């Protein structure tokens, strides 16, 4: 835990008591604050109290006495409309911050020579893999590394701050919306496509939230930014023109005169005076696909910013195990391979998985993002069948009509059984059942992790049978 001492002997409100809220409440209490924590859910309040968080109904208190409101990133700040606690705080001028801002304040309170290194990673897709890859490489290099934020542990649940440590943090747009003082020694922005617009109200607000990852950087800091989309290319140009920091463009489709490129399955380092081939991505079994090429390029640039040797980075990329629920091999049953890509909660993320496999039995559906799966039409010829679940099933079926065989499975249990039966019947040597939902999970599951775990459990329970020989007649 990282104790937060800035609010010692002051009253502070914490609203939203899931993972980050509970961690914030305990860290503030450890630092001497009088914590008033609350959540709209009675069940969540009970879990938080059992975890040692002090409850106090902040709806019934005089808000003028609060030094700040620590808001869970899952609580609406402005769109579709501010939550009532946001309006209460604003009415009396109480600052609204998040757990990452508490972390930033704790870092900034240290003398410069006592501060750890902070690496922030954001982007619409690829954040978790890139964060984990950077953390893995730093550990392989013998560094004292803590990985968390929007992945794994909440940032305030990580080990206490000290010089020489590296904090590698995945940062969502919701978290970045609540920061003001965060300074990243290396800030990574991978890519930007429309996402979470219901929470940000407009694309320009989403972009503005992401861009905050570069705020407060100085001459010794690094900005690593993907330039394969127009937004990233524009922001990169603006950052270079401003000149306040070092800028490393990264691409998985362009040969860059400066930066890091992934081309033809090879990684090229042009951060110096010339472009050198530094790694063959074919050596990294858990970094398949163009999206992972971009992730690897960004991770490489961030690691070079801290002086890691090329050979150390290369060895770490080769030994990287990948992430659960992101193109995770869930096993092979009767000749049919199962891939758990439950973390693909939007169409752009699902596209990255569909691009890897030439022929798939695709399980998709849940709570769709804006635009559904219309952007995936270029991958429909790869579908041996689509097995649709959740609220989005009917809309997805309309989009897929005439392009691929569709089965309205309804739920994951039926989808796995039906996809397995069809894949096995095909007798294809490379049959793949892919769970890549292109949707949020909360119509049928608590989160994407619960959905992925359920998929793996269902696969493990499938009956074994000899593979079908498609050549037999």
Topology:
Layout (H helix, E strand, L loop, with lengths): L10 E5 L3 H12 L3 E5 L3 H9 L18 E3 L12 H8 L4 E2 L1 H10 L8 E6 L4 H14 L3 E6 L15 E6 L2 H4 L9 E4 L7 H4 L2 H9 L10 E5 L3 H13 L3 E6 L7 E5 L2 E5 L5 E5 L9 H16 L4 H10 L8 E6 L2 E5 L6 H8 L5 E6 L1 E2 L14 E7 L3 H8 L5 E5 L1 H15 L5 E4 L3 E2 L7 H13 L13
Parallel strand pairs: 1-2, 1-3, 3-4, 5-7, 5-8, 6-7, 8-9, 9-10, 10-11, 15-20, 16-18, 16-20, 18-19
Antiparallel strand pairs: 11-12, 12-13, 14-15, 17-21
Structure description:
- The radius of gyration is 23 Å and the shape is globular.
- By secondary structure, the chain is of the alpha/beta class.
- It contains 15 helices and 21 strands.
- The protein folds into three domains: 11-97, 3-Layer(aba) Sandwich (Rossmann fold), CATH 3.40.50; 102-319, UDP-N-acetylmuramoyl-L-alanine:D-glutamate ligase (3-Layer(aba) Sandwich), CATH 3.40.1190; 328-460, Alpha-Beta Complex (Protein-Tyrosine Phosphatase, Chain A), CATH 3.90.190.
- It has helices spanning 19-30, 42-50, 84-91, 99-108, 127-140, 173-176, 197-200, 203-211, 230-242, 290-305, 310-319, 347-354, 393-400, 412-426, 448-460; strands at 11-15, 34-38, 69-71, 96-97, 117-122, 144-149, 165-170, 186-189, 222-226, 246-251, 259-263, 266-270, 276-280, 328-333, 336-340, 360-365, 367-368, 383-389, 406-410, 432-435, 439-440.
- It has a nine-stranded mixed β-sheet with strand order 6-7-5-8-9-10-11-12-13, sandwiched between helices. The protein has a six-stranded mixed β-sheet with strand order 14-15-20-16-18-19, sandwiched between helices.
